[in-house]
Amino acid sequence: MFRLFKQSKNIIRLTTLLIAVIILMSVYGGARQVYWGNEFDRISDRAALYNSTLVSALKHYQYLPFILARDPIVFSGLKIGETQILNQRLEIFAKQAQVNHLYIMDTKGKVIAASNWRAEQTFIGKTYAFRPYFQTALTGRRGEFFAIGATTLVPGYFVAEPIFDRDDEVIGVATMKVDLGPLIQSWADGGEKIFVSNSDGIVVLSTDPVWKYRSLQPLSTEALTNIEQGRQFLNKPLSALNIEFLPDNELRLGAVNYLYQVSSFPILNWNLHYLAAKDVIIQRSQHAVLIASIIMSILLAGYLLIRSARIKRALCASEEDSRSLRKLNEELEREIDERRRAELRLALTQKELKQASKLAALGQLAASVSHELGQPISAMQNYLAFADLPDNKMDGETIDVMLHLNRLVARMGKITKQLKFFASPQTISTDAGVSSATVSGTEVFHDVDLRDVIEGVREIMGGNIQLTQTNLKIELPKFAVIIRGDRLRLEQVLINLVRNSLDAMKDNDGQLLEVNLFVKHGTSYINVLDRGPGLPKEISEQLFEPFVTTKSSGEGMGLGLAISASIVEDHGGELKARTRNTGGAEFSMAIPLFQTGDT
Ligand code: ADP
């Protein structure tokens, strides 16, 4: 059951995790799409902007060679060979227009005048007939070209215009060169990643110098021949750029992936590639995922908080339930316990009642038997005494019979005497009429000083004690020990205990009988100690039950302790017996002291 619960819990956890992962992946995908769209719009705008900047930079200078080609001084310089004035003029024009170089070539491609006439690396005297822009201009059209400078080795944009004479014959070429390096550098300084490829797919301008003069695609033999003939890139290897164009406007350049946008412009048939790092999109998408996970965590924490509060409440309620259930259980157990005790008490009381009624019946029987037999026995004793008179002549045999009869009658008298001793209190005379008497059950109780009880027993049993040569040691307190009770019945108990002790010690030499009276914790104790053999093991458990005796018939009836215990109980006390460690028996009679206020 527990395993099943654990398994389903694990499944719920896994499903939740799966849902969370799916949500986060969707968030990532969605965010990526949105940011990609935004970024693509941005790079399209940027590509268009840089395209127009470059176009305007190129167009800006295009008019200059055209004007020069129609300048009379250029014309006369070509015709007459007056080049010094021309040089100065070109120098001023170049400076004013902020172009790098202006120069005039004859129809052989030889430079006859140049704005850099003062410089060490002046173009004057150099022949650029191999340049395509010159060849185009010779045909009467404007020539445009991008190449690395053959003299200066500085790359630049060349524009050449044919110079016509009056017969529309080309007599020379006016050329301008613009270095686009500073413009590209300003883009690089702005942190942009841009490269421009020409119609052959060779990178001619680039914010990253590594990409420059590298080809985007394999070059055809024709293109390679043209480049070589025009000495466009001098002897640069034009190796292939490690570039791969991917779907969705993505390209991989080296080890880095970029988003890119191409913008083409009509002049020279060039393409401008604007690149943007993809990281931004990934980073922003990751931020979106992070925010989504934080929101999900907060929601989850909130849910868990509410759930744990609910569980806590349910736990409290169930604890409360189990507490009250426990309480009910305890009450039930208490009740059951109480009932069991009551049942035990009832059984005990019933047993005691049975015993008491047995003893009472026995007492009555003893009283009536001793009364009924008492008179015939004393009559028999009288007849026997009369027969024993000296006037009555009897032969020896008759005398023997008489003696035997005498002994039998004496024994019968002893038995009736014993029976009388056990007779119930109602059936024997008491010294009633003492003041402040109370009734307990069917008996009348008075204040009794237990010291008097012991003294009374000493008097009654004095003869027997002397006869058996027993030392009697009595210890009494100096103060009165008062209980509520029946003195005669208590004396009866004590006589019985003393008699049993004397019987137990009858075979002993140097007999000692101790009777102690003392008070402890509101209870009086009379202890009777002897030096006999101690309690017989075989009857030690049933000592206080009627008719339990080890004595022979005529010696004892096994009623003494049963009746004594019953009398002590009637006084609210208890009679106990044990064999002493030193040998001999100890009987202890405990009765509560009479407290003022007791009735
Ligand atoms: P009975 O004296 O008629 O036998 P009791 O009820 O007085 O009846 O005594 C029961 C038995 O208890 C006795 O038979 C005896 O075996 C034992 N008993 C009583 N008192 C003593 C004692 N002081 N020492 C040893 N045994 C005793």
Concise overview:
This protein is α+β, with helices and mostly antiparallel strands and 599 residues long.
Attribute tags:
five-stranded antiparallel β-sheet, alpha+beta, 599 residues, binds adenosine-5'-diphosphate
Provide the residue-averaged pLDDT.
87
Oligomeric state of this protein: single chain
Largest sheet: 6 strands, antiparallel
What is the structural class?
alpha+beta
- Cα(first) to Cα(last) distance is 68 Å
Order of SSEs, N→C? HHHEEHEEEHEEHEEEEHHEEHEEHEEHEE
Strand order of the largest sheet: 7-6-11-10-9-8
Q: State the shape.
A: rod-shaped
Number of strands: 19
Strand content: 15-25%
Radius of gyration: 73 Å
The kinds of small molecule bound in this structure are:
adenosine-5'-diphosphate
Query: Any low-confidence stretches, pLDDT <50, length ≥5?
Result: 426-437
User: Helicity, in percent?
Assistant: 40-55%
Topology overview:
Blueprint (H helix, E strand, L loop, with lengths): L1 H68 L2 H9 L3 H14 L3 E6 L4 E4 L17 H7 L4 E6 L6 E10 L5 E9 L2 H9 L3 E5 L5 E4 L14 H9 L13 E4 L3 E4 L2 E10 L4 E8 L1 H109 L8 H26 L16 E3 L2 E7 H18 L2 E6 L6 E4 L1 H18 L6 E10 L2 E7 L30 H11 L3 E6 L5 E8 L7
Parallel strand pairs: 14-16
Antiparallel strand pairs: 1-2, 1-5, 3-4, 4-5, 6-7, 6-11, 8-9, 9-10, 10-11, 12-13, 13-15, 16-17, 17-19, 18-19
Helix pairs in contact: 1-7, 7-8, 9-10, 10-11
This protein binds adenosine-5'-diphosphate.
